TrEMBL record:
This is UBX domain-containing protein. Transmembrane segments: none annotated. It is found in: Cytoplasm. Residues 179-205 have a biased composition (Basic and acidic residues). One of its GO terms (cellular component) is nucleus. Residues 6-40 form the UBA domain. It comes from the Eukaryota.
């Protein structure tokens, strides 16, 4: 005949749990072990190995024969409902119970099979409930993971957008600085060109004046003839510099006794005769128009 341990192994219980059940029920039978296994299947450490108690020295006095005791209790009976239990674990859900010397009737093969089926159904139901719980927990964790991943992706895209905007702003700034640099170079080239052109014209005018002086020495010796008081000088002035704007010809009548400073004003624009070629600068500002040969009329070019 198979032992209770063998039967429980055939039922599919782990050996560690079987050993704990048989030890806890103190060999009260298969039913007591099944009840214990059903009550303690969710205990923490149920599958941990059994710790063996250290050996104790037996005192010689303990070996003496103990006085006869009453028969040991074989079961527990609920005082309220009268139901019989094989162990204290099963009776713990009842408020009032007492010990009984009557042993619990062992299960028949059919009862064992039915009990096993019941235990297996309970185990399957609990496993399914745990599986459903784990699945729901996994679903919640996946939702949390996806949300965290989406937030991380949003932050990453935001940072990437900010970096792109910074790069665009930097490129725009570099293009603007490059444009300003090219403009300054262009302005410098234009300024140098104007300066060379003005120097060329000035040198050409000086050369023409020297040639004119060499050709007409008598005119330099004779000096500028004086004109009678009250005569006028009609001057036609043409701006020759872009900085003066397009204001066309200026024609004005001055007294021949007025000075060149009266014509140019405070800014003292430069004036020059085209023929015969002659320029009027700062040294001519205090001379009269008659002394400069600009009366009774003259055509002048004005520059800054």
């Amino acid at each position: 005949m198979a032992s209770d341990k063998d039967t429980l192994i055939e039922f599919g219980f782990p050996p560690v749990r079987i050993d704990k059940a048989l030890k806890a029920t103190q060999g009260k039978g298969l039913q007591a072990a099944l009840d214990w296994l059903d009550s303690h299947q969710n205990d923490a450490g149920i599958d941990d190995p059994i710790e063996e108690a250290p050996a104790q020295t037996v005192d010689s006095t303990d070996t003496e024969e103990a006085p006869a005791a009453s028969a040991p209790a074989q079961s527990l009976v609920c005082n309220e409902c009268g139901k019989q239990f094989s162990s204290h674990d099963k009776a713990s859900y009842h408020a009032d119970f007492s010990e009984s010397t009557e042993a619990v009737k062992p299960l028949t093969e059919e009862e064992k099979a039915a009990r096993l089926a019941e235990i297996q159904d309970k185990i399957a139901a609990k496993r399914k409930a745990q599986a459903d719980k784990d699945k729901e927990e996994q679903r919640r964790n996946e939702m949390i993971r996806r949300k965290a991943g989406q937030e991380e992706q949003d932050i990453r895209e935001k940072l990437q957008t900010q970096e792109q905007l910074k790069a665009i702003a930097k490129q725009r700034q570099e293009k603007e600085l490059d444009k300003l640099a090219r403009q300054r170079v262009k302005e410098q080239i234009e300024s140098d060109r104007k300066e060379r052109e003005a120097r060329r014209r000035r040198d050409s005018a000086q050369d023409a004046a020297k040639q004119q002086q060499q050709q007409k020495p008598s005119m330099l010796q004779a000096g500028v003839p004086k004109v009678a008081a009250g005569s006028q000088a009609r001057l036609q002035i043409r701006p020759m510099s872009k900085g003066l704007g397009d204001i066309g010809h200026i024609t004005h009548v001055f007294e021949s006794s007025q000075t060149l400073a009266d014509v140019t004003g405070v800014k003292h624009f430069k004036l020059a005769m085209t023929f015969p070629r002659k320029e009027f600068g700062e040294k001519h500002q205090t001379k009269t128009l008659a002394e400069l040969g600009l009366a009774p009329s003259a055509a002048l070019a004005m520059t800054e």
